[in-house]
Amino acid sequence: VGRLVARRLLSHPSFCLGPVVGSKRSEGQLYQQVWEAKERALMQNYGNQLWKAAPFPKELEGLRVSSLEELLASDCELAISCVAPDVGYIEDILTAHGVKVFSISPYKRAQNLMVLEVNPNQMVASLDQRLFKSPNCISVGSTLALKALDDAFGIAEVSICTLQSLSGRGDAMYPPELVQGNIYPVYNTREPTETYISNEIRALVDIAPECISVRAHRVGVHIGHFADVRMKIKAPSKLNGVESVYAAFDDFAPLAHLAGVLPSLPSRPVVSLREAGSPRPSSHQMLFGGMAVAAGNVKLHDGPWDICFSVV
């Protein structure tokens, strides 16, 4: 994730990449050496048919990995944190030194949690704070689609089953036999992913604890998470065929007034795909540069569920 963020910042019109902080093992090393070693380890672990190495950006040649102390001594005012929760205290050190931290780490994720299109007032209300939290990647994508449908129909109950790619877990975290040509259910493993997703969705969208179910799985996909979502709605009389669901996705643009102000803001955060057999992770995970989610595969009145759809 950190490598993807570094690459994205190279072309950002407002921000530039500052110090890249790593572990004690990588401090002082050329970032290129660390980058390429991690990509090689992923290819060796998962196989080169599954994992395609991301090339090192030429713009970063010569950059060395900094220590936390070097970052604190710099004039950097903003930090993006992707640290594992067991070293999340680094975020506390940064905020204590006046650095504003925008974090996707599970550490303290219940504090100041936000997805701008879902709860935009949270950012405005917390501008004087120093820690800003983004939820689990599945929570981000699914809450965009859920918020669109909640605005249109109201959500009574929801069930989510995820098929999550390997890139979301970190560097070569799984024995290959678990995920190569396989599906790995993460419940009751060391990954509390289902708990993360459930808590975060409930914090962002108004759903009672007893009205949400989450099952999470890792699959042999490089990049792009897939979720199957089923829901009961509060206003079934407003549901007039599948087109009313697609219309809810199409009309959802709560930050449209900021078009042209936020450079990475997609014109539509939820892109509805009506083509049969979509959305698909490899095909649709980079809509608007990865800043929008793809929703489709809509089905109505399936057993007890009013609306079923898929999101990538």
TrEMBL record:
GO terms for molecular function: aspartate-semialdehyde dehydrogenase activity. Coiled coil: none annotated. It comes from the Eukaryota. InterPro entries: ASADH-related (IPR051823), NAD(P)-bd_dom_sf (IPR036291). GO terms for biological process: methionine biosynthetic process; threonine biosynthetic process. This is Semialdehyde dehydrogenase NAD-binding domain-containing protein. It comes from Calcidiscus leptoporus. The lineage of its organism: Eukaryota, Haptista, Haptophyta, Prymnesiophyceae, Coccolithales.
